[in-house]
Amino acid sequence: MKKALIGLLVVCFITIVVGTSYWYTSKDEATEQEEQVVLSDNPDEDYDKALSLINNGKPLKAIQIIKKYRATIETDNEDGNRWLDLFVKASTEIPDIRQLVFLYQYRPSSFKNNEDASLMLAEAYLITGKMEEYHKIREMWKGRESKSNYWLNIDADFLILDGRRNDAIQLLSEHSYEGKDDVNRLLRLSLLNINENPKKSWEHLVEANQKDPNNATILSYRARLLEATGQVALALSEYIAASAADSDNLALRDQLGEFFIRHKRYHQAVQVYEESLKSLEPIDSILLKAVFLGKVIEPFDVEVTSDNIPDGKIKRLIEYIVNLPQYQFWNEETFTKIPNHQKYLDTQQVTWWLRLLSSIDNNDLTNAEQLLQHNRFEDIAWSPEVTLALKRILNYKLNNSLSLENSPFKITNLEKNSEEVNTKWKVGFYTQLNNFAEEQELNPEFEMPENVKALLDSPLAFSVALLAIGWDEAALAMQKNKIIPEDFPEWVAYAYTQALRKNQGDMSALEYATMQHQTPPMELLTGEIMISQNNRDAAIVQLEKLIVEDDNVGVRAAWLLSLLYINDGDYAKAKEIVNQNEAFSKSALGVESLARVALLEGDLVTADRLYKSIEGQSSEAKSYLARQAYQEKNWERAKMLTIELLKEYPNSVILRQNLFKIMEAQNGNTPELNNNGEI
User: Fold this and answer.
1) pLDDT tens-digit readout, 635-650
2) Mean pLDDT taken over the chain
3) Which of 13, 533, 598, 670 is deepest in the core (most CB within 10 A)?
4) Taking the domains of the chain in order of start, what are their residue ranges?
């Protein structure tokens, strides 16, 4: 608990270096040496210029001037103290905590009149456990604080670090401040109650949000608390709102991406990281995660080279993965040439996954078994569902049993029959594996369905397991059979076609689809691909033979046909298609098509009524109603609908901009809609 609190409460972690000098050249300062400031021969002019640079947000340039007066600073007279105070002010504005530490060690009295610098220094000493120095700084300001809310939070942090949780709660509860000044106090109270009293924790977050509605930190904490209590949909809303409130914050984007990974929404996770890499300076740990997702989920539309990999402890590992061929997971010879390569095996989960996938891909089941038996990352696995499924299939290959009861494998603690992993297919492959394993434990004579047995006996078993959960790129890399046997489950060929379409494009998917045994779902998918390739006439022929069915295939075929006729401007034919398929006419897609026709025909009353009737089921309806709410200045409804849309399209720049502008409008700044209907 204490470690978690420290991690959340600390603004930054500083390593204090005790030295004999009060001056050093920071990395940031060194990078600005190229733009030298012109100095004068008049100390007063130089002082005024340095002060002006600080006040105008250019403290590094001010330090170039201050360096000229180092000898003056060392005289410890009135003029020297004046320059030293300016040095402290510039270091505070950077901020350069390490420099402040050196300056304080050199002359503590220089901090008596700079509260901001003292606050930074007090926090630095507190975090690094230098309590004697912390107490000296704190005593210096006792009774004369002008920023009492900041000192209160630091005092509470001291009590937390000292193991006095109740005292910290009491101290924080005895004070309150107006508006945004109270946010950090409320956040600390929320975190202190998160385990013992989640309801109270939530109340503090609600109060903080009321005092600063667009504070990304508050929204992020609310998201984590909601997710921890099982309110996943609400948590996603908060993660999205936090990311929109501070769109340049890569850590908040990473939180959203991690959420999608935890909940098996891998394509959306890839979209989040791809957009982040396009627009923001990457952090090496986040880039490694993104590169791994590109290797196993879908390729990124961002080129990663040695030039744009940030310096850091894992740069060589990222370079190694980026330079692997598309469908190769591992190259032992190349990897062992990396300096200190063993540390990556010990510390980076990505190396375990890539070695496991490589062993399976090369049919080295012995090595795969060893990796699954001895997984140092078992308790923090990115996907315990995949790990469990691969164990079951490997055990089936080696011992003819899906049950792990008498196997050498550790059984991952997952709820049986969990449908969370079954996000794509009616036949939940992972659920099936778990259920069949349970049946085998209860009845050794149990026989699996023939189509599942055929799949598990084939070389495609591992690939299909990855395909079923959405690890499409890894599944395609392992696909050995270009033609799926007819005795496999029907969804397998369809799923491979979808994976190819997403990762390699329509033409690869269409070529693959035509090679497979044709079923209604495959025929429907072929028709969809024809539409995206602008092959309208062929698509109509393909779809018309499917709309007679009242199942999901017939509904979707009718929907696609109605869209084709709407696009042609043939509204009567579109309505005829809707009414021709009873299941479609009663579905959200059917109502959506009729609403679109009404809108295009200028019948706004009918369009409003139809869109409102399917608001909870249709993205198109949400988009229409969000714009309507914005025009009516119903900010809360517009915000709610836009967040709902962002759950489905987290990478939409327009939606993120709309959400930000709605939140601005709530605070009294109301932009207008443009001609494209964007806020």
Assistant:
1) 999 999 998 898 888 7
2) 85
3) 598
4) 324-480, 615-679
